[in-house]
Design goal:
The protein is α/β, with parallel strands linked by helices. Helix content is 56%, strand content 15%. Mean pLDDT is 81; it is low at 208-212, 260-274 and 803-811.
Length: 811
């Protein structure tokens, strides 16, 4: 009922306002017919001016396309009043607004409302102007105030209309009006109105035919207003066109990515089952999002019904054989859809159609390539992909299991009853296996009579044993094919994986060996006349114990950090320390740092490890600077992709803010620089702008390339020890000299690693190398030993040999 009252009230308001517009236009035309002929030329220019001013919309809120917008055709009023009657001037404005809205939207209702609103506002402005003029307010000031009143009136009416027709609109927490925009709009209208009035009364310079009320003067003012409106509108139009073009490009790319996602989902083969209807819904949601971002709408949806009044829509077929419409809505009073909006919608809808069609084709081809044609289960290739996918994406606490299943006596069945019977048995066994597992498990056929199952989301071995028992119960029910009754007997090998695997091949092999052990025992029992029933054998598979050690060390915050000095060869002083991760297991002993880092990466714990090292390093840096403030920098090793905001980029920014007196240097491992994408480059530059230094580590190792020197934004290049292992070789010396020259030209510093004795240090000094690091200057030490060294020797680069031998070190 309330909605019905709103619609009726809206129609009544449009009828009343439209009647005002039509009456004003009619009165203006009748006065023109009976008035001087020269008024027609003024009226035509005035209509064009009002139309140009009408299309220059001004937003008075913060949510595009869902808030009031206003225009100021009333600015033509001060130019018209000195030469034509007020009724003619208002009629001209109404006709200009009505014409341009009708031309742009082809909706008479919208044109009628807009022109009626402009007419009512112009009448109010004229009344205010006359009232103020009669009160002794100067005419120019009075007209400026009147134009400001017009803007306030339009905003008020629009707010009332929106509240009445829509209730309280959903603006995502934003207010309907921006106080700043409203204030600027009213003040701006008043200033411009006063300026136009001034030009009309005083006269435009260089117009020689008289005073401020001349016809030529009025035409010049109107044309100037028109030119100004066009000058404002053109850049806005260009920005809008650019936004649409960028939206089309980004939208097409986003929609096209759906097929790549489809490929990935098909690869899991049962891990994340997605029906065609679900895929169509996802594509529909993405289409709605890109339409909203490209065109700017109040709402957009994919539905079965075609567009109605105030909407634009295009047919789409996101589900094969089903015709729907993508329909966008925007209140025409806030800004009706244009022809360009319709073209954008058509282009995006067509892209979605092509993507949907491609999805059907890709899905079909991929499914056929990865599906066993007899049982319609995933084949061996799909099983391998699914197992890798599940292993890589499971939580560390989530266990999985692989069941290797063999159907006993299948060859004898084929030989005795034919392949048709054998095929039917395999099909039925596939159905029974699928019915025995859970929706998130994977069943595949990997050979003639061999099946494999991946059990996921397990907490303990008993969970896998329960599912395996259910499989044996359901699969062992007698199967009747024609006159034949066949009771399937299964040999099942189970390999349980408690932690994320680094060698999946071993897991599958253990399950296969457990199954083969049953087969061997069956042959022995057959010779002894034993009976045959389905059997389960659990492999003695243990997830690599080191995985568990590494994860527990990281999660329990048990890692330690050692610090190795970086020295300046010119001053002979330490100016920085490199933070290096270390861990010693209570039972297994020290774990090599390279192994620790490799496992952290494989187990998706690298970010947590880096944060733990960084926190300890910066806390240590504070203690180091309390002893000697000449040490200004702490370097931390990371992989290049870790600088992205979605990983640790934001964390590093916050770290720099927490420790403003310490220079942070992030050492990008040279081996990870092949993953330097444009977003990584941009974020690296952003971090440098914030004062964080970037170093390329291990340059000269096996994975190094000259490409790193020019593609990676950096402040420091660290030379790997492999480039200085024989400094008597002139080729090594020339390479170092060339790299130092590169550094001087490209404005980065160079640090040579692996300096182990004074002879190497002397060679580097002769070559002009200014910074070095290595055992000659100190082995990595924990913080207490590092502080003890600084207290005893200060920032001296080299510790006396006899004391160095007694120092507590950590290899």
């Amino acid at each position: 009922m309330a909605e019905l009252m709103r619609r009726r009230g809206s129609r009544l308001a449009i009828f009343i306002i439209g009647a005002i517009a039509l009456a004003s236009v009619s009165l203006g035309i009748s006065l023109l017919v009976t008035g001087p002929a020269v008024n027609w030329s003024i009226a035509i220019v005035g209509i064009v001016c009002a139309a140009a001013l009408e299309v220059c919309w001004i937003r008075v809120g913060s949510v595009r396309h869902r808030i009031p917008v206003i225009s100021l055709p009333v600015l033509a009023l001060p130019a018209l009043l000195p030469v034509v009657p007020g009724a003619v001037a208002i009629g001209v404005i109404a006709l200009g607004v009505m014409s341009i809205i009708m031309l742009r939207t082809l909706e008479f209702r919208v044109a009628l409302y807009s022109s009626g609103l402009a007419t009512a506002g112009a009448l109010l402005s004229l009344g205010v102007s006359v009232l103020l003029d009669g009160s002794g307010v100067p005419g120019i000031t009075a007209m400026g105030i009147a134009c400001g009143v017009y803007a306030a009136f339009i905003i008020t009416v629009e707010v009332v209309r929106i509240r009445f027709t829509k209730g309280k609109p959903d603006l995502d927490g934003h207010r309907m009006l921006s106080l700043t925009r409203v204030t600027l709009s009213i003040i701006g209208a008043a200033i411009v109105g006063a300026g136009v009035s001034s030009c009309s009364e005083i006269g435009v310079p260089f117009i020689n035919d008289g005073g401020g009320g001349s016809v030529l003067n009025a035409i010049v003012v109107l044309l100037a207003l028109t030119a100004a409106a066009v000058g404002v509108k053109l850049p806005v139009q260009m920005i809008s066109m650019r936004r649409r073009l960028n939206g089309l490009i980004a939208g097409s790319s986003a929609l096209s990515s759906s097929n790549r996602s489809a490929k990935k989902r098909v690869a899991t083969m049962g891990r994340i089952p997605v029906t065609d209807a679900e895929a169509a819904k996802r594509l529909g949601r993405k289409l709605c999002r890109v339409v909203s971002e490209t065109i700017g709408v109040e709402s957009v949806e994919v539905r079965d019904s075609p567009p109605g009044p105030g909407e634009i829509g295009v047919p789409v077929s996101l589900t094969k054989g089903i015709r729907q419409y993508v329909v966008a809505r925007r209140d025409a009073m806030d800004g009706a859809f244009t022809i360009d909006d319709r073209r954008c919608l058509v282009a995006l809808a067509r892209t979605a159609d092509i993507v949907a069609e491609g999805r059907h084709n890709i899905g079909g081809l991929t499914l056929r390539a990865k599906t066993d044609s007899l049982t319609l289960l995933p084949n061996y290739g799909a099983f391998q992909e699914a197992l890798a996918n599940i292993n890589d994406n499971r939580d560390y606490a989530e266990a999985i299991a692989v069941l290797f299943i063999d159907l006993d006596d299948f060859k004898r069945l084929n030989d005795s009853h034919g392949h048709q019977v054998g095929d039917e048995v395999l099909r039925e066994l596939g159905r029974r296996l699928t019915a025995s597992v859970r929706p998130y498990d994977v069943v595949a056929r990997v050979g003639g009579d061999e099946f494999v199952i991946i059990l996921t989301q397990l907490s303990e071995l008993d969970d896998a044993r329960i599912v395996a028992g259910r499989i044996m119960d359901k699969a062992g029910v007698p199967l009747v094919i024609g006159d034949l009754e066949f009771r399937p007997v299964l040999s099942i090998g189970l390999a349980y994986s408690a932690y994320r695997e680094t060698d999946l091949k071993q897991l599958v092999e253990d399950a296969d060996r457990a199954m083969l052990a049953i087969k061997r025992s069956r042959r022995t029992s057959r010779q002894g006349g034993g009976t045959k029933t389905s059997s389960l054998n659990i492999a003695d598979h243990r997830s690599f114990e080191l995985n568990d050690i590494v994860v527990r060390a990281i999660e329990a915050n048990e890692l330690k950090v050692a610090f190795q000095p970086i020295v300046n060869l010119v001053t002979g002083h330490i100016w920085a320390f490199e933070a290096l991760v270390r861990y010693t297991h209570p039972e297994s002993g020290p774990i090599a740092p390279t192994t620790l880092i490799e496992k952290a990466k494989a187990l998706d714990r690298m970010d947590a490890l880096t944060i733990q090292v960084a926190e300890q390093a910066m806390a240590a840096a504070l203690r180091i600077r309390q002893i000697d403030r000449q040490i200004v920098c702490m370097t931390i090793n990371i992989d290049a992709p870790q600088v992205l905001p979605g990983r640790l980029g934001t964390y590093f920014q916050e770290l720099a803010e927490r420790f403003p007196d310490i220079s942070i240097c992030l050492e990008l491992n040279e081996g990870s620089l092949s993953m330097v994408s444009e977003p990584v480059r941009a974020e690296t530059e952003h971090l440098r702008d914030l004062g964080i230094m970037i170093a390329v580590d291990d340059y000269g190792s096996q994975d190094s390339s000259v490409d790193s020197l020019v593609r990676v934004p950096m402040d420091i290049l660290k030379i790997d020890r492999s480039l200085i292992d024989d400094l008597d070789d002139i080729r090594q010396r020339e390479v170092l000299t060339a790299l130092q020259g590169f550094g001087d030209k490209l404005e980065y510093s160079m640090i040579v690693e692996g300096v182990e004795n004074q002879a190497m240090a002397d060679h580097l000094t002769v070559l002009g190398i200014r910074n070095a690091q290595g055992f000659h200057y100190g082995v990595p030490q924990f913080i207490d030993d590092t502080l003890a060294r600084l207290e005893a020797h200060g920032v001296a680069a080299v510790v006396p040999t006899d004391e160095a031998a007694l120092a507590s070190t950590l290899e």
